[in-house]
Amino acid sequence: MLSVTSIKAAGSIILAGIIFVSGLSPSAAQDPPEDNLDWVGVERALRLASQNDKLILIDVYAEWCPYCQRMQEEVYPDDSVGALIRKYFIPVRINTESDEPVNYLGNAFTHAEFATALNNQGVPTIYFMNQQGEVVGQQPGFLPVDVFSSLLEYVGSGAFENQTFEEFENR
């Protein structure tokens, strides 16, 4: 079995400077709007990321989580968010309570086990992986469209490698 430390790269970072938005109410029980993103599995994402010179965005969520529902209903369907994800990332969704299979670098997990292997502490959490499957950053919590769009540009453009999010925002 693959351990947490083998998934997380030695140089992985937690993206700083982004504040968790609290006090959000649960969303109504209805089908979320279409986000027009091609969500794929981890194994396929690794293959596509390498072929298309992109990073991988992993949305770790739980169905009962109101913040996760808000991300799905309000953030992912936004045109600017969708455009940035399609430009820079291959998107993956991982349900922390699912027994659906995940294949990661030849190792078999369930969604729940994979979230645990990522050392996931809460939902929603976004993980960013490079083409080798190493976590290069993570961001927990609900993010409104404007902040999430900035984060996607910050990570996707590679700016995270040489400046803080605050420096990026103040450019």
Describe this structure in words.
With 171 residues, the chain is α+β, with helices and mostly antiparallel strands. It contains seven helices and six strands, in the order ααβααβββαββαα. The strands form two sheets. Strands 2-1-5-6 form a four-stranded mixed β-sheet. Strands 3-4 form a two-stranded antiparallel sheet. The longest helix is centred in the last third of the chain and has 12 residues, at 145-156. It starts with a helix and ends with a helix.
Write a brief structural summary:
By secondary structure, the chain is α+β, with helices and mostly antiparallel strands.
Structural class: alpha+beta
Order of helix and strand elements from N to C terminus: HHEHHEEEHEEHH
Proportion of residues in extended strands: 15-25%
Oligomer: single chain
Evaluate the radius of gyration. Answer: 15 Å
**Low-confidence segments:** 1-6, 8-30
| Cα separation of the termini | 43 Å
The global form is: globular
Number of helices: 7
Question: Would you count the extended β strands for me?
Answer: 6
Strand order of the largest sheet: 2-1-5-6
Major sheet summary line: 4 strands, mixed
The residue fraction in helices comes out at 25-40%
Query: Overall mean pLDDT score?
Result: 86
